[in-house]
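Lecture notes, unit on protein representations.

Consider one protein chain, 1089 amino acids long.
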Amino acid sequence: MTNNYSQIVDKLNKFSRSYYLLLLIKGLMLLIACVSFYILFVLFIEYQVYTSIGWRASFLIFLIILVSFLFIKYVGNSLLVLLGFKSSSEIQKARLVSSLFPELKDQLVNIIELGQMDDSNSLVASSIDQKIASLSPFDFRNYFHFRLIRRNSIFLVSSLILLVVFSFAFPGMVSTAGFRLAHFNQVFLKPAPFDFVLLNSNIRVKKGTSIELKVKCVGADSPGNLYVNIGGSNFIMSSADSVFSYRLEHVQNSFPVFFTDLRFSSDRYFVEAVPDPLLLSYKVEVNAPSYTNLPKEEYDDVGNLKVPFGSEIKWKFNCADTDSLFLKIGGELFAAAKNGDSFDFSYKCLKDTKYSVLLSNQFEDRKELISFDIQLVPDLFPDITVVQQQDSVFLSRFYFKGEIVDDYGFHDLYFNIKNIDLDSVFTLPVVPGLNVQDFYYYVDFKDYNSLGISFSYYFTVRDNDYFHSYKQSTSDVFNFQFPDRRELEAANDTFFNDIEDLIGQSKSMVDDINRDLNNLNYRRISGDINDWENQQLMQNIQDKRSKLEETLKQLQDKNAQMNNMNDSFGNQQEALAEKQKQIQQLLDEIMTDELKQLFDELNELADNFNQDRFNEMMDRLDFPMEDLSKQLDRNLEMLKKLKIEQKLTNIASELNGIADKEKVNLEFLEEKDFTQLSEKESSNSEGIEELAKELENVFEMNQQLEKKMNLFPVDKELDNIQLNYKEIQKNIQDKRRNKLQDQLPQNEDAIRGVAFAVNQMLQNNEMQQNGENLANLKQILKNLIYVSLDQEEVLNLTVDLDVNDPLLGVVQNRQDLLLEQSKVIEDSLYALASRTPAVNSKISSELLKIDYSIHQTINDLKEGLINNVPKLQQNTITAYNELALLLNEALENIEKAMANAMPGDQECDKPGQGGKSSMKKLQDAQQSLKDQLQRMIEGLKNGENGQLDQQIGKSLIQQEMMKQMISDLMMDDGIGSSAKEQLRVIEQLIEQNRLDLIQKNISDNMIARQNLILDRLLKAEKSERERDLDDQRESKTADQIFYSNPELIFEYNPKEKNNLDGIMYNDFRLRKFYEEKFRSYINKVNQKD
């Protein structure tokens, strides 16, 4: 393609751009001019006429149409071409130029057409160059001249000039009319000669409420009447003080209003009916804390609430025209969660409070609708009530019944026990959800005796209120204190005095009843009594009988209380405790069933008196009443003796306790704490002095016994101990440690020696008394067997006897002799019964049967009633047999008591087993003597002879006690021959040491003999232990035979002849068949004879 052609095309493009630019300028000038004329026209009309909204809207619409039309027609096409959105071909451009330059004709078009042909054709190129050369010269710039836009410019400038002129000619036209046209949708009225002043600051009204419109006309020519136009209708307004008003009731919708005097109108106002937030309904859900177990509660439209502490309250509010809802609780504002037209809110209530509900929308901000109170139901503290009951037998044992009450339930229940060193808590089971519960508990303070003497105890309960960490309540605090020895002694003395008084009263009542019975009998025989007096005397006897039973019941209760106190708080030996039980049993059985039955029969006799029956009753009552009096004396005697034994046991225990304290005091001496040592020694000295006084009282009490106990005084030993304390106190003041190191152990040994002596007194008396009782009982049994057999012979003589038989006198004489022999047995048994409780009330009952049967037999023989005699004699034999069984049981008890009375106070299965514990005691005592002898030898070596005589005296006392214990052991049938041989050697060694002590020949030889004594004691103990093992092996088979067939008991020891001591009854097996078995035994004894 030639360069000429390219130049032609470039020029065409440049011309095209310039041409369209010219068209754009002309179009814009025309657009602006037309719009300016239109705006000036509209502004002028609006300024003059105050067109309506419709006209102003039409003006604006036409303006938009005009601008759009002019822009599209004169501006849009040129602008699109210039921006490149629309383009034209070179041919179109050439034709445009040709039309603008007629002289070019079609030459330029032909050149462009040829240029668009195949450029490789040289012929075409030549043709193009030729035509270009033939073109007449022309310049595109010659076309663009001011004349092309002159008319448009004039038109534009004219419109602008007119706009400026009108703006100056009509000031405010552009601004006011332009403002009204811009706000075409508002009503603009032509100003009146006066002003409509709306006095309402706000004409927004809540739906359904009323509003009063108030207007005042200010200016010249104010109207006389004024109307409000609502919905095109005029409503006359009332006038007062130049103020026009009109009240709108129950406004439901928004609407425009204006005021007019029918000439001029005010601005348009819009009465806006805004929605008021409404609470239509609400629900309240109360969820109490889980521990209360209360169900969920729901309420409809209930404001004031009463809920448990910690409850979660949920509200659900149904509202209308409400954007948000708030709850003001306790001064704090909370927003509820919106869910459609409802609002939800939850709150955990922990205190009494007020709450208000506030509603908001776009027209109302937090309007308070309702206000209520929330009152908490407090979770009260749990309540606990406890009643304690002391065991009537075990006084250290307490039973508790309690009740716990709470609003909602319990978390736990505890029993607390405290003292200085103890703080224990025991958990009791509770049912968590049960509001009212009973509980029971038991405590035995004996289990805590080793931990102290004083305790406080109480119960605590906690409820299940986890908000307050489980509130706790405590029951009444109880206190328990173990009585000390002095308090126990004082209580025992009080009980004993009461018992002694009650026994005295009972004896007096028995005597009174006997006197009344005798008096009644005498007056009946003499005839000096009428029926009324007879009735009164019988009633008086029954009253005294009731009073006697009541007194005896008090006596039993008092003794039981004393026993219970000693069992609970006293550290009694088992033997003394057993005696207490036996005496209590005797007291419980003192008023026998037979005696009660006799009194009941006597009472029945009062209604229908019969002299013969009364005489019979007198005979039958004579012996039981006499026996009752004897039983009272017997029990009093045994109680006195038991009291002495208890006091001696306590004194010995206290002495050992003081000796233990002496050993502890050595620690204060080692620590050189002389102040503390002095206080402790002074306390021990006072304790010894008190015990000495108690011993004096014991000796005085012993003098009151019918059969006095064999007690020897220890006054000198106690006086020496007191002298030792004085020397100790002096050495403490002088701080002589060396002397104190010797004196304190010596004083301890001296105190233990006195305690040992007191224990020995008790043991020796017990063994001596049991030995006497055993011998007496064996003799009584032999006598009983004799009279039983003799009575059986008399029975055989009486069976075939008649009134005229010459043997009748022989029978009477032998029966009288049996009466005297029975009386001897009875007196012996009563004497024995006053010394030991082993002889129980059943024995007395059998004695009464014997007495009655024999006396009645003698009376019938004298009166010739032979037929009644054999039956009475048979009753006597039966009573003898039963009495023999009972006495044999008592014999076994005494033998067991003798075994248990051996030193050691440990229960044995058979006599002789106490010897092992005795040997252990002997070993301890001999070791103590050995230590004492060593101190004496060391004192002699150091030249300390001042206390030698006193120490020798103490050692001699202990040696005598050792000899007595060895003698007792050697007399025990349960000790084997090997052990007895060792004991004989020991006795000789002790005698040699005793002689050396008397001669003050104290040397190392005595220590050697003490070692030899200890060695022999160990051998004797070993021998007894081996012997016991052999006995256990041998007795196993015999025990099995005995329990499998109790009848073989009579074949167990065939060599025994008339020796009731060898009888071994088993109570459970023999009581059912005692009569048959005993008769079998008597037959065998007779056959042996």
